[in-house]
Amino acid sequence: MNTKHHLLVVDENPYVVDILVQTLSKDFKITVASTGQEAARLLIQGNRFDCVLTELDLAFFSGLELTKLIRMSRLASQTPVVILSNAPDSATRIECLEQGVDAFLSKPFNPLEVKAKLHALLRRADSPIEEPQRRLVSMTEQSENKPFWLQKSRIFSMLFGSYLLPQSA
């Protein structure tokens, strides 16, 4: 892996943030947001992250609200979200999973477990099966200022081109 994955860490506790940054900075490029509003602003401004690691219980804008924002975003909807929390009850976990949370880690956490969970999620996100979808999103971004017919033909050929090629006998 030539480039580091970009991770957004969202937690109001500076001690937790310090532990996460110390543990993860060797393997990841890290951006820190100390509030849910700050994290939302970074996402709305178009910053791209490969994974979001957030506390569930943030004041004013929770980790669940942040997850909902990510899932509604055209560009970030497939971004893995990991929730850190003081062991929420089953109902809270179910609600979070229904809203698109990919994984939970309980506080206090083992920093090496956090690192392993992030690597596992990002391995899955980087799998070749996801590549056509990433190319489609990239193509759509690059085509926004081009005529609609050109956008449509490029996307159509990317999606169905391999099915339209003549088969060798």
What attributes characterize this protein structure?
globular; 169 residues; Bact_response_regulator; alpha/beta; phosphoprotein; Rossmann fold; 5-stranded parallel beta sheet; Response regulator transcription factor; CheY-like_superfamily; 7 helices
Describe the 3D structure.
This is Response regulator transcription factor. It comes from Spirosoma foliorum. Residues 6-122 form the Response regulatory domain. Keywords: Phosphoprotein. It is a single chain. The protein has helices spanning 14-24, 36-44, 63-72, 90-98, 111-125, 131-143, 148-164; strands at 5-10, 28-33, 51-55, 81-85, 103-106. By secondary structure, the chain is of the alpha/beta class. The chain folds into 2 domains: 5-126, Rossmann fold (3-Layer(aba) Sandwich); 129-163, no CATH class. It has a 5-stranded parallel sheet with strand order 2-1-3-4-5, with helices on both faces. Helix 3 links the parallel strand 3 (51-55) and strand 4. Helix 1 crosses helix 5 (111-125), helix 2 (36-44) packs parallel to helix 3 (63-72) and helix 6 (131-143) runs antiparallel to helix 7 (148-164). The protein is globular. The mean pLDDT is 82.
